[in-house]
Amino acid sequence: MKNDYLTVRATLKQLITNGKLAANKKLPTEAQLIKKFGVSRYAIRKALEKLEDEKLIYRIQGSGMFVQDWNKKWIYNSNSKTIGLICTHIADYIFPKIISHIDSIIAPLGYSLLVTNTHNNPQKERARLINMLDSQVAGLIVEPSESARPNPNLDLYRIIKHNKIPILFLNACYPGLDFPVIQNTDEESEKELTKYLLDLGHQKILGIFQVDDLQGVHRMQGFIKAYQEQNIDISYSNIIMYSSHDHFETISHKIDVYLNNSQKPTAIVCYHDQLAIRIVAKLKKSNYQVPEDISVTGFDDYDTAHYFTPSLTTMTYETHQIGKEAGQGIIALIKGENFNSITHHPTMKIRNSTAAPK
Question: N or C: which end of the chain has fewer CB within 10 A?
């Protein structure tokens, strides 16, 4: 079958990471693996190729495939002055400021940042983690990739915990892990923002949420709870769920379905400001007035939200404070001190993109 290789890969990966296949042990031949798994030669070769990409096995020409001694260097290095930062995106939106504020804390103490991104892809996260661990960084700050989905890298995080490598998370932490995390009250904050719209008189509200990240799932839950707590029939609302890998055109086409309906929304609640800004531009292009025809809200209080026309009603994201706390937190963990999780409570910023419905 088309995805037989996934079963082979997962089984061999578990045997390797659990220590059942020891470092430098030779793997069975292709013929033996075909017989064992009952799959095609193509499936076996693709599974082995993926494991090789993950640096779990290596090839010796003419001799076969062997188990990589893949975590031998993954120990806490007290002499290292490099802190690894793995984020979903580096160059845009709010993360450049967070990076800057982290650096402002660690640089005076002689530490430097090794920054990389994953484009919210768990497989890229795995590769970045392995590179960081191979480099024996002093500690890790991680923004998780697709945090709402089962994480394929829990084996690496368990090794990090076992080897007592300092680590903290930003925005969310994977279920099943107990590392410290700096995050927001996403559910409560989105509920507050939605209640504000309901109090203005909106009922036909369209919520648009990125659901492969826990932040988006929590914000969507807050959107729903606002209706429930206000005792307003939630059937008046609609929700669009999308993935971080979807193009805006995909989301735009879904929005058109509701805009072309006789019961079109009077307000749109967006996962974040970046999306809200694009949706306002789309509405203007379609001759809708914001907020006269449709109100729009965002989340994160992105710089552009202040200066955009109309200025955007949103919830704050304290990039300055969160960046500094991340820097202080990882330094504390490197020193062997405790650092407890921190939860921020965003503040609502009411601006010109929202008004009572006509």
Answer: C
Q: How far is the C-alpha of 349 from the C-alpha of 273, rounded, in Å? A: 12
Is pTM beyond 0.70? Reply is yes
What are 17-40's pLDDT values in tens digits?
Answer: 767 888 889 999 999 999 999 999
Beta bridge partners of 87: 117
Query: Cα(79)–Cα(241) distance, rounded to whole angstroms?
Result: 46
Contact between 27 and 66 (Cβ < 8 Å)? yes
What the block records as the tokens of 281 is 């531009």
How far apart CA 84 and CA 289 sit, in angstroms, is 45
How far, in Å, CA of 184 to CA of 345, rounded?
Answer: 6
For residues 114 and 64, give the distance between their C-alpha atoms in angstroms, rounded to a whole number. Answer: 35
Question: CB of 73 within 8 A of CB of 133?
Answer: yes
d(CA 287, CA 265): 15
Instruction: Kindly report the number of other CB atoms within 10 A of residue 140's CB atom.
Output: 24
* C-alpha 240, offset from chain centre: 18
Report CA dihedral (264, 269, 272, 278) to the nearest 10 degrees: 20
Task: Please answer whether residues 137 and 114 qualify as being in contact, where contact means their C-beta atoms are separated by less than 8 angstroms.
Answer: yes
Classify 294 in phi/psi space as left (phi over 0), alpha (psi -120 to 50) or beta: beta
Please report, for the chain, how many H helices and E strands are present, in that order.
12, 14
Alpha-carbon distance of 56 to 255, in angstroms, equals 44
Type of residue found at 245? H
The Cα 285–Cα 289 span in angstroms is 10
Q: How far apart are CA 288 and CA 292, in angstroms?
A: 8
Q: Which residue, 156, 92, 99, is CA-closest to 125?
A: 156
Instruction: Give per-residue pLDDT as tens, 171-198.
Output: 999 999 999 999 999 999 999 999 999 9
